[in-house]
Write a structure and sequence with these properties.
Blueprint lengths: L2 E3 L6 E3 L13 H13 L4 E3 L8 H9 L8 E6 L6 H15 L4 E6 L7 H13 L3 E7 L3 H11 L4 E7 L11 H7 L3 E5 L13 H13 L3 H9 L5 E3 L6 H10 L6 H10 L13
Parallel strand pairs: 3-4, 4-5, 5-6, 6-7, 7-8, 8-9
Antiparallel strand pairs: 1-2
Helix pairs in contact: 1-2, 1-9, 3-4, 7-8, 7-10, 8-9
């Protein structure tokens, strides 16, 4: 599995990781097997959140990584309603208990909320000092939000911005992605296959994807992932609740597209015009 430095942190992280949103809906034994097979395949970046299954997904992740914690780049997220100074500290402790670990590698604010961002960042800094997380970051932040966060936290403090990014939703390429690149902030793509609407091979766009995949001996999803992580500093966390899906996703991290293939995909899935706001699910 290809690893790239995770923004300014310099920590080598697999370009393809393991997302866990809605994992509580899967068969538990199969979900555990998928996560463990992901670790075996080198997908050691595991992303979860207190929101997922109201904590149940963190418990699944904790069980999956038992005895293997040191292999994992472990990420969780705090809900905005819990993002006061004291609330962040309580939420992190609860996540650590469910994950059965003493520290995270990265802790994120799930999306901007009503609590003053100064309090959230102060709590994140306290967690770093206490050794409960190595780094902290944000999710679903647009450029204005990012500018404010960096102004409050200082340079090389916000490690990551996790955002919606897939072939048919490339809005972040206009402003958010270049801004993060200039500031050494890693970009992590969630829902990199969309939300249940991955391009069909019967559609004109899907045919391009399928043709490239066939020529490369890959799958369309592997090609899609390779396109999204073509830039250094961009990572993707597709969810896989079955071992077969994990194996497929892992192949996307080993595929490098040619300039011609990237250009074909760029034409087939144009990023469109800039628009106000940041897309979310």
């Amino acid at each position: 599995m290809v690893r790239h430095p995770f923004g300014w942190t310099g920590v080598p992280v697999p370009v393809i990781g393991l997302g866990t949103w809605n994992l509580e809906r899967a068969d538990r034994a199969e979900a555990l097997a998928a996560l463990r097979q992901g670790l075996d395949a080198g997908l050691t970046h595991i992303d979860t959140a207190e929101m997922y299954g109201r904590g149940r997904v963190e418990e699944i992740v904790g069980e999956a990584i038992a005895g293997r914690r040191d292999e994992v780049f472990l990420v969780s997220k705090v809900l905005p309603q819990n993002a006061s100074f004291a609330g962040v500290l309580r939420a992190c402790d609860a996540s650590l208990r469910r994950l059965e670990t003493d520290r995270l590698d990265l802790y994120l604010l799930h999306w901007p909320g009503q609590h003053p961002l100064e309090q959230t960042i102060a709590a994140f800094e306290q967690l770093v000092r206490d050794g409960k997380t190595r780094f902290y970051g944000v999710s679903n932040f647009d450029v204005a939000d990012l500018e404010r966060a960096v102004a409050l936290a200082g340079a090389e403090r916000i490690a990551c911005n996790q955002v919606l990014y897939h072939l048919e939703e490339r809005a972040i390429e206009h402003a958010v992605l270049p801004w993060c690149d200039r500031h050494g902030i890693a970009v992590v793509a969630y829902s990199p296959f969309g939300s249940g609407d991955f391009p069909s091979a019967r559609s004109p766009r899907g045919r391009v994807l399928a043709e490239i995949a066939e020529a490369r001996g890959a799958t369309p999803r592997q090609v899609a992932l390779a396109f999204l992580v073509r830039r250094a500093g961009v990572f993707a966390i597709p969810k896989a609740a079955r071992p077969a899906h994990v194996r497929d996703n892992a192949g996307g991290g080993a595929l490098t597209l040619s300039a011609e293939e990237e250009a074909r995909l760029d034409r087939a899935f144009p990023r469109g015009r800039p628009r106000r706001g940041l897309p979310t699910l």
